[in-house]
Amino acid sequence: MAASFTPAGEDTRPGADRRAAEMARWRKRSQRIHFFRRALPWVMLAIVVAVAGWVALRAFLSARQMDVGAATSAIHMTNPKFYGRDNLGRSFQLAARDAVRDSADMDRIVLTAPEMRLDTGGRQPIEVRGGQGVYREDTKELWLTMGVVLRDGRGSEFRSVEAKVDTRAGVVTGEKNVQGQGPLGQIAASSYAVYDGGDRIVFSGGVRARIDNR
User: Residues of the chain with pLDDT > 90: what percent?
Assistant: First the structure.
């Protein structure tokens, strides 16, 4: 009759293998839970960083789009004409080859080859023009630069490097050198002002004049 022997401490009962398998599964599940517990804070941190980065990126792109929009939203006009009246009801007209309204300051208009006519309904309107100019719609003032030429409608012509036209008062002034000539002769000065629709012209600073006797 054969006999079998089982080493001491070893359980050969039918349920032993099942318990061992369940124990192994429990250990694996416990390890996974431990892993996820340790990894979860890092995953949450990565999500927060990603969201913050995306928000910052969207803000940057929006700012760039606003800058581009501001740069491209300037209103450009070709051969524009502006009309108005001064405080005495005399009409004026401003024309230019090109005009660009400042997108950051809508009252500011940059002009190319501007030409202003004051008292356009009068018999002798004043004309002043320049290579460049800036007109402000809020103050109704025009600044002219680059080869300014002024004609008073009486046969006189004056040249300067700048001029300021106050369309409300109908006054033209300049703080830089001016030279001119007319029916009475030639004149040069450091500054000038034209009042009363050209009826009164005041020259100041180093005035030099030559009167032609006819």
Answer: 30
CA atoms of 205 and 170, how far apart (whole Å):
23
Using the predicted structure, report yes or no on whether residue 214 has a pLDDT greater than 80. Answer: no
CB atoms within 10 A of CB 148: 24
Delimit the domains of the chain by residue range.
15-73, 75-211
Q: Which CATH superfamily is domain 75-211 in?
A: Lipopolysaccharide (LPS) transport protein A like domain (2.60.450.10)
Residue 23 binned pLDDT confidence (cut-offs 50, 70, 90): confident
Contact 95, 81 (CB under 8 A): yes
Residue 58 Ramachandran class (φ > 0 left, ψ -120 to 50 alpha, else beta): alpha
Q: Is 54 left (phi over 0), alpha (psi -120 to 50) or beta?
A: alpha
CA distances from 91 to 88, 122, 132, 163 (A): 9, 9, 22, 19
Backbone angles phi, psi at 183, to 5 degrees: -60, -25
Predicted confidence (pLDDT) at residue 34 exceeds the cutoff of 70 = yes
Q: What is the pLDDT of residue 188?
A: 92
Quickly list DSSP for 5-38. Answer: ---TT---SHHHHHHHHHHHHHHHHHHHHHHHHH
Tokens of 81: 């004409």
